[in-house]
Amino acid sequence: MNIFINDRWQSKDYLAHYYSADKLVYDEVLIFKYIYHFLLRFKKNSFNDLLDFGSGPTIHRLIPFTDYINNMYVADYLPENLQEIKLWLSNKNNAHNWDKQIEDIVRIQYRNQMKSLNFLKEKVRAKKIILRSKVKNIIQCDAFSKKPFLGVNKKFDIVTSFYCLDSITESKVKWKKGTGNLLQLVKPGGWVIISALRNTSHYMVSNAIFPSPNINEKDFIKVFSRNKFNLKTINFKIISAKPWLDSGIKSLMILSAQKLK
User: Fold this and answer.
1) Taxonomically, which superkingdom (predicted)?
2) Which of 1.10.150.20, 3.30.565.10, 3.40.50.150, 3.40.50.10260 would CATH assign to domain 3-259?
3) 190, 158 in Cβ contact below 8 A?
4) Angstrom distance (rounded) from CA 63 to CA 198
């Protein structure tokens, strides 16, 4: 882990900077639409195990998967981030309130079935209960280690990673190494979903500046080809970063790909 990240990162500053709005911002809406479109090809409860790698202090991106995954695992390098997740999973009063974001996620999923405010509230309540029941373990990880989890030897049907490896180093060499380690956690025939900063060299959290390795879709194609993924299954979506231009973010991307069986 870049020591600069470790020393200056503040989970609550990050949550306040990017998740203090009363609704999902534009880019997050597009990410959740992408995820739901990806999941529509599968039946409910199609997968046993999902790993969210580099979760940061967030939980909301797991919500779309609650109908499709039996067991969820959350991993991050920083104990401070894991503590934020534990607070929410334990329903503590001092946990970050994700209700507004979850409401918007539910609206995306049930956009043709939204009958009333009570319907919305019940779905939000149910999603929170299900997510809390399906998270089976919270794991400290190190993406730059060949074995990212100490004492855990497991591969997953789906691995997700949202703004992780692109947000902790300025080195493209380190990014490639970390992404390769991440992709090794996917089962043969399994899937990966990644969102990342695109063509970006840095980003801001409050007044602190953090590095990014200035990657784009060409870099992902190279790393997938080296790690036994079916290049025909790669699906990219480029997303405008207009709300975050002042934070140094040039554009965003989300992608999915299947590992060869």
Assistant:
1) Bacteria
2) 3.40.50.150
3) yes
4) 24
pTM for this prediction: 0.93
Beta strands in the chain (DSSP E): 47-53, 69-76, 135-140, 156-162, 186-198, 202-205, 208-211, 229-240, 251-259
> With b meaning 16 or more CB within 10 Å and e meaning fewer, what string describes 213-248?
bbbbbebbbebbeebebeeeebeebebebeebeebb
CA distance 105 to 192: 20
The tens digit of pLDDT for each residue in 170-210 reads: 999 999 999 999 999 999 999 999 999 999 999 998 888 99
Residue where the block lists tokens 């334990």: 90
Say how far apart CA 38 and CA 223 lie, in whole Å: 21
- What distance in Å separates the CA atoms of residue 102 and residue 128, rounded to the nearest whole number? 8
Q: Which of 195, 191, 216, 203 is CA-nearest to residue 243? A: 203
d(CA 168, CA 202): 10
Percentage above 70 pLDDT, the chain = 96
Per-residue pLDDT tens over the stretch 25-72: 899 999 999 999 999 999 998 999 999 999 999 999 999 999 999 999
Q: Which of 253, 235, 255, 237 is nearest to 193 (CA)?
A: 255
- Partner residues linked to 257 by β-bridges: 192
